[in-house]
Amino acid sequence: MLLLLVSLAVFAPLISRYQPAAQNLADILRPSSANHWLGTDQLGRDLFTRLIYAARTDLRIMILAEILPFCTGIFLGMLAGYYGKWIDALVTLMTNTLIAFPFYLIVIVVAFASGAGERGIYITFALVGWIVFARVVKGLSASLRKQEWVASAKVLGLPDSRILLFHILPNVLPQAIVVLMTDMVGLLVAIVTLGYLGIGIAPPTPDWGTMISEGQTFIYSKWWLSTIPGFAVVYTGIALSLIGDGLADLWRRK
Amino acid sequence: MKMHMLNKRRIFRKGILSNRAAGHTAATVSISILSALLKAMATVACIIVAVFFIIRIVPGDPVKMILGEHASPSEIIQMRHSLGLDLPLGQQFVRFLHHLFMYGDTGTSIIYNVSTRTLIAERTPVTLLLIVMAIAITIVVAVLLAMIAATHKDGLVDHLIRIFPTITLGMPVFWVGLLLILVFGVWLHWFPVGGTSGGLFGTLYSLTLPAITVAFSQIPSLVRSLRAQLLDVLGSDFVVTLKAAGIPNRVILFRHVLRNASIPTLMLLGVNVSYLIGGTLVIEQVFGLKGIGSLLFSAISSRDFPVIQGIALYCAVAVVLINLFIEILSGYLDPRLKGDD
């Protein structure tokens, strides 16, 4: 499923005959036809073209924005779980504080304060995205620490950094990756929501969120303009969570 | 009859309280409440610090944002001074704290020139009502669906409910709202498509669709958790005992199983409250409701940062308080939870 989506996104220029920003004011708000599979929007842009170009933008930002929080989350989670005590207390306090802010509130405020657009999205998720990973990894590494082989590794005189990197990390990574899949869905939804609210990706760059908000104006007559981009988001979400479920099953069986 | 009731009580007690250790007196309960209270206070303190610094650490100058890129330097200096932004950071923080504890707000709105507390208080009723309605719908629907799924395991509803979270995970809240507007507002004309109409009934009526939208985002995960808990409790020894004692299934399900299964789900709801409030803010925008969400967005577009700080602060503190309440409540519902820390 994801493969189809990614290849649509990657080969977008080959698949579509139109440019995503190309306007054709003679052909505005057309319903589906042979020339325009999903019709055209209020500026005569081909909806299908914009849809697959938006997949390019949104998927790229989704993956890039997830890298930093994924790494910091695992790092802090491992430290907190392995050492416990004050590091744990500090990380817990930080997560509790950030979690208290409603997710969309903090996303909206930080994205706005750091300037709307792609950069704002990266900063926002670098700031708030690590919590999920830190929590999962913290619990896992705290339970790993108590196991015998970690204790014996310590007795053998292995430095903490070695134990963390070569023994704890490989054990927490699978779970973190499963979480990553679901978290990416949430991130994608957040990117799209920011776009919808006008503080995400700025037009004319195609993005599913801005497409939905532009289409909302025509909800009475041209309902497909705002609903179809949403289905693209849902489709991506299902694909990602199925991968997550699949990976979880695979690792559980091992 | 009386004997029967008594027996039932005893069996029920055994079920829920069997693990209760001997040392759990009222003193330990109040100590754990105290520790929950202390934790909540530490979090609130951090929230206050975060709200103060969030505007200052992220790149971007609020004064430049208010005045625009082409403001003259003297204007900028004057604005800085009137907002107190020219003071050293420590002094600013003291002023911020002073204001917070004296007036309970985050300063005066730059645009409306009134206290942020007043502004937010004006907008609270709509948002609060929406949240309460959403939670009510969430709980009713989640309990119903989870019960059907758990009592008819591997039935059609059960299967649907298990697939459901996978599908809804990727649904943006605002898009669900749009779909509901389209179907129930535009096509079926059952509900108004935006704003609130007068009177209590009118308000409730126009908040129904937004509340369903917000609830929709919460239901899948709650149903999944509640279903798992219900199945867990249904398989436990005390339920088998109750059944053997000849107590009707309906009574067992509602009085005993649901109570035991509700605790972890209640905690999940506590975690989700933060998402629920965030979703509500976004949904207000979709339905054109004059609540805190629309205040937030107008404050954002006019760069009114004291208002933004105020909303962030109040919402976060509300989340902490709700979680504190849930923690204490689940302590009463299940005494086993006490003393775990």
Automatic annotation (TrEMBL), chain A:
Pfam families: BPD_transp_1. It is found in: Cell membrane. It is a multi-pass membrane protein. It comes from the Bacteria. Keywords: Cell membrane, Membrane, Signal, Transmembrane, Transmembrane helix, Transport. The chain crosses the membrane at residues 61-83, 90-113, 119-137, 177-203, 223-244. Residues 55-244 form the ABC transmembrane type-1 domain. InterPro entries: BP-dependent_transpt_permease (IPR050366), MetI-like (IPR000515), MetI-like_sf (IPR035906). Residues 1-21 form the signal peptide. Belongs to the binding-protein-dependent transport system permease family. This is Peptide/nickel transport system permease protein.
TrEMBL record, chain B:
Its main location: membrane. InterPro entries: BPD_transp_1_N, MetI-like, MetI-like_sf. The keyword ATP-binding does not apply. The keyword Zinc does not apply. CDD domains: TM_PBP2. Residues 124-330 form the ABC transmembrane type-1 domain. It comes from the Bacteria. Keywords: Cell membrane, Membrane, Transmembrane, Transmembrane helix, Transport. It is a multi-pass membrane protein. Gene3D superfamilies: MetI-like. Belongs to the binding-protein-dependent transport system permease family. This is Peptide/nickel transport system permease protein.
